[in-house]
Design a protein that fits this description.
Distance between the termini: 18 Å
Radius of gyration: 20 Å
CATH architecture of the largest domain: 3-Layer(aba) Sandwich
Mean pLDDT: 88
Strand order of the largest sheet: 6-5-4-7-8-9
Number of domains: 2
Shape: globular
CATH class of the largest domain: Alpha Beta
Number of strands: 9
Low-confidence stretches: 1-6
Helix content: 40-55%
């Protein structure tokens, strides 16, 4: 089961009561694992999450967890139970050629505040007039306010186009022809968009958040601080105008692609289930 900070512990406990002796695996996914200390009921949510992890036989992360995550989520005696199983992705059946004369940057994710969805569009506004950057945003809006903002941004910003929600195959095909993926989230559990970019051979620029650092590594040169529009614009410009820097990002991402191969994920799950049999 995936961890949800509010409902997970009772579910684990009910399962254990109904099926004594059956192993429980809890997968740590999504943004629920990143609790804001200022949030209402933080202490209670933290306690429930820790109960869930303690009750499980194995705790699975979709990428390397940060030390702080281990600190708040897992008691030290629980650490031996955690395993890392990278979320796999495959390239689309139909790939798209990158367009000449345009430097397309993909933003792949629903328009939610935690995704900081318009940061790439705002960064594109800061670029010099000669820049060829165009931001292609794929993702559904969950509120009328977000939809209105997306339509307004598209009308006012010639460097931004919002596609709305697309079928996965179409979204992957569009991504495959882009020069970059921009991950602007404030928080991520294990971002599938980064795995999909790796599968497509598309380099990534991202906020320095644990969900991405756990996939790309701490020394990856394509990070920028959360909410830093100017630094993101500088990264766009550097990728567009400095072939050596862009090639370095591409080579680094290519070197991490093996982590998200479907065969590796399947083998990791077989190994984990074998531990519990």
């Amino acid at each position: 089961m995936a961890l949800h900070a509010v409902k997970s512990a009772p579910s684990v406990e009910r399962f254990a009561a109904r099926c004594p002796g059956r192993p429980v695996v809890v997968a740590i996914t999504g943004t629920d694992i990143h609790l804001d200390p200022s949030a209402e009921q933080y202490d209670r949510l933290q306690a429930v999450a820790r109960r869930t992890a303690a009750a499980a036989d194995r705790v699975v992360f979709l990428r390397e967890p940060a030390p702080l995550e281990l600190g708040w989520l897992l008691d030290e005696e629980v650490w031996p139970k955690y395993r890392v199983i990278y979320q796999s992705a495959e390239p689309p059946a139909v790939r798209r050629e990158s367009l000449a004369g345009v430097f397309e940057v993909c933003v792949l994710g629903h328009l939610r505040p935690v995704k900081d969805p318009f940061r790439a569009a705002e960064a594109a506004r800061l670029l010099p007039s000669e820049s060829r950057v165009r931001v292609l945003h794929i993702g559904a809006t969950l509120t009328t306010e977000m939809e209105d903002q997306a339509r307004r941004e598209q009308a006012e910003n010639p460097r931004y186009r919002w596609y709305g929600e697309l079928p996965r195959d179409e979204a992957m095909t569009l991504l495959s022809g882009c020069r970059l993926l921009a991950m602007t989230s404030v928080s991520e559990g294990g971002p599938s968009a980064v795995s999909e970019a790796l599968a497509c051979g598309v380099p990534v620029v991202s906020t320095r958040i644990s969900g991405v650092v756990g996939l790309l590594g701490d020394e990856y040169p394509g990070y920028f601080p959360i909410g830093d529009t100017l630094e993101l614009a500088r990264l766009f410009w550097r990728c567009e105008t400095t072939p050596a820097f862009y090639a370095a990002l591409a080579a680094w991402c290519d070197g991490r692609r093996h982590l998200i191969e479907p065969g590796r994920e399947a083998g990791s799950w077989r190994l984990l289930l074998g531990e519990l049999s």
